[in-house]
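Write out the 3D structure for:
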Amino acid sequence: MAIKISKKITGFSVQSAEPAADNQAAPAAAAPAQRGEVIQMHEQIERPEVLVGSTYKIKSPLFEHALYVTINDIVLNPGTPHELRRPFEIFINSKNMDHFQWVVAITRIMSAVFRKGGDVTFLVEELKAVFDPRGGYFKAGGVYMPSIVAEIGAVVEDHLKTIGLIRDEALSDEQRRLIAEKRAAWEAVTRTSAGSGPSAVGAQGDAAGGAGAGQAAGFPPGATLCHKCSTQAMVVMDGCQTCLNCGYSKCG
């Protein structure tokens, strides 16, 4: 309906309750977003007074004294469903001062990478790929370490698995059953071949030749190194090399 204005307009105002209602609802809607803000790891986060840490011992035949690797974690969003632990710094201590320079260098570089945030799991593969030109060694359990730096990488990997940054690919029940069957079949063949003839002499020679890393871990004598899990547990069965530790097989 049109209204005719016969007087001069001297002023006007808009009368409506809708904007006021919107203004009151806006802070209420914004409040949950502020409470639900998730803090991610980045280089602007300052170091707290207290950090949660874990210390790992490395006893290598290449060093006279043990190495002690300490990794400190920062706790993000504490007390909330978004609580996370992320590595913040790393320290390596030892009585052995022969490698002091590179030890300090590697700890400073790794700590800088940790504090920058993002995906830091790539450090594990980079460290584990370092080879010592003098040769590696087997640590307890029959796992081959190509260098002391690679073992530091293995320690970092274990720590990242502990705090949930790396998920360990556990063997399925079928894989465990297959490995158990393969191991039982290998032990049966070994017992049969060791009962007579030159095979028995060879088996006795292997046993007398000193227990290697794989034997110390419970794997058969003469087992070779697995390229997947770096454990001396690879044996030849039915014309195919099979690992009795992780189930890896070159035949698929």
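The beta strands are 52-58, 67-76, 84-93, 137-139, 143-145, 224-225, 232-237, 240-243.
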